[in-house]
Structure formats: structure tokens, C-alpha cells
Amino acid sequence: AERRYSDGIFADAADLIAANEAQPAIFPSRFRFADPSAPGDAKRQGDAGHPAGPTNLDIAPFANLYERLQPASVLDVGCGDGLCLELARQCGAAEIIGIGGPDRSAAVLDEASYRKQDLHVGWSLGRTFDLVQCIEAASQLRPEATGTLLDALAAHARGVIVFSTAEPGQTGPGLVSPQPMADVLDLWAAR
Q1: Are 111 and 124 in contact (CB under 8 A)?
Q2: What is the distance in angstroms between the CA of the first residue and the CA of the last residue of the chain?
Q3: What's the CA gap between 114 and 190, in Å, rounded?
Q4: Cα(1)–Cα(64) distance, rounded to whole angstroms?
Q5: What H or E segment, with its residue span, contains residue 129?
Q6: Which residues contact 141 (CB under 8 A, 6 or more apart)?
Q7: Is the dihedral of CA 173, 177, 181, 187 positive or negative?
Q8: Of 20, 42, 79, 169, which one has the fewest beta carbons inside 10 Å?
């Protein structure tokens, strides 16, 4: 597959930012969020209660991931505002499902693509996906729920799982239990 978003070569951060700003927007205008500092603009809230930025998404790594894997189906557990999934759709995923805690009004996903779910308890959609991603959702759960989350991720993955967790000392909205990745991986290996 042709790489369209990244050549994989490291570069100076300022140069990358300038190059990114010169690129045409990947998202259509409906994903341009209101500017909370502008008079008359409504404040758009993400699922963690923080304002969504211009995209609230670091596009290049996710576009590269979807471009390389070309998943037909993507499950995003702890999908937040759903922008990763919308990007997956724009990169060719035919089916996207986001699992989140707040109601769907906090996400850009349509009703068919969003499921409200308490991640502290076991759950199943009764099927698998080419790609399952879970970006820092474990850090927003009570520590005793981490194993339950890991079981759900594994049960829904037919292919690749992309997982991250906030490290201790990391700050951010909604972080309840940042854990060292090594500890989470040890727990996963023991299950």
C-alpha cells in the first residue's frame, strides 16, 4: 500500500508541524469544532469532559496504522469523541464500532456505530474485528477492572490489538489509575 500520511522518517518537530499545517484537512468541514474562545461559538466537549480541539486527534500515526493494516472492521474501546474511528472509515474501514461511557451526543459517530458500555463489567458484542484499539481507556477505570477490560479486548480481536495506558505521573482529564505498561502486560500474560 502506498503511504500517504507519513514517510516514516524522523524529522524536527517544528518542521513536521509546519508541514502538517500546510496539508489539506483530512476531515470534512463538519469535523471542524467550534472555537470555545470565539464569541458566539459553543464549546464542544469530548467524553472526558475536556474541549475537543480542531481535531483532538494526532492524525498521522493512526492514518499510518489504518493504511498499513487496511482493516475492514475496527472496534475502538473507550472511543472518546470517535474521531479515530471516523479517520479509520475515511482510510477504508467498512465497519466501525465505538464503545464509550457517555451518551452518543459526545461523539461524532452515528447511532449504528456507537455503543454505550460500562467498561468496569464484562461485556461482549458477540463478534470479532480485524483491529481492536484501546487508547488509554484502562487508565480511566478502577485498577481492579483492568483485567476485565483486557479480556474483552482479546475476545473481540480476530487480528491486531492496539493498546496504550497512561503511565504513573501522566496527567490528563479522567485519569483514575495510570499504570506502568509493564504491569498491564504482565497482567495480560497471566490471563
Answers
A1: no
A2: 35
A3: 31
A4: 10
A5: strand 129-135
A6: 119, 120, 149, 176, 177
A7: negative
A8: 169
